[in-house]
Amino acid sequence: MHGRAREVLAGLVVVAAVLIVSGIAAGPAAAQAPIAPAPKQPILFSHKIHAGDFKIDCQYCHADARRSTFAGVPSVKRCMGCHQIVASKDAELQKEVEKLRTFAKESRPVEWVRIHKLAGFVYFPHKRHVQTGLACQQCHGEVQTMTEVAQVAPLTMGWCVSCHAERKGPLECVVCHH
User: 148 phi and psi, to 5 degrees?
Assistant: First the structure.
């Protein structure tokens, strides 16, 4: 190996080590406090009620996670599969169910405010992570305890690299950067 190539390789090793070490300090287990407040959504949707109290599996609503790059959000039709029958005993929560029913009657999708977003140059296939058995909570936090979902993990390169290193996942740049 020539001198310049050796220097570049050494530099890459140092950068990777710094990213891994910095990522471990803020790794998956450490991140639970919201990074930013939960955004105001068009409908108050409680993951605590759905995923927590009723124990609805994440992939029932986010079915694309197991077969796509994106987890996706459920369609109004999916929500109405339950809410055409299910109502809330709580008057305030029932108002939110009525908002959902209005969207359904008008055949309009709910325009949810996105919470988790990666940089455009990052390729993140949910399906690969689901297929390896990684729990959704590893990146999204204990959503089953959240009335309003907020981002709890930094989703930075160092954070992801540390997770890959810890779980012996691929560390090649082209895995996430195409």
Answer: -125, 125
Task: Please report, for the chain, the start and end positions of each structural domain, with discontinuous segments joined by +.
Answer: 1-31+154-178, 37-73+115-152, 74-111
Token digits for 28? 């998956």
Distance between CA 46 and CA 51 in Å, rounded?
8
Verdict on whether the full-model pTM lies above 0.85: no
d(CA 106, CA 111): 13
Question: Tokens 């959000």 appear where?
Answer: 73
Q: What angle do CA 66, 68, 72 make, to 5 degrees?
A: 85
Walk along the chain (178 residues) and give the pLDDT tens digit of each residue: 565 545 534 444 444 444 444 444 444 444 478 898 899 999 999 999 999 999 999 999 999 999 998 899 999 999 999 999 998 889 999 999 999 999 999 999 999 999 999 999 999 999 999 999 999 999 999 999 999 999 999 999 999 999 999 999 999 999 999 8
| Angle, CA of 126, 22 and 113, to the nearest 5° | 40
Tokens of 13: 């090793």
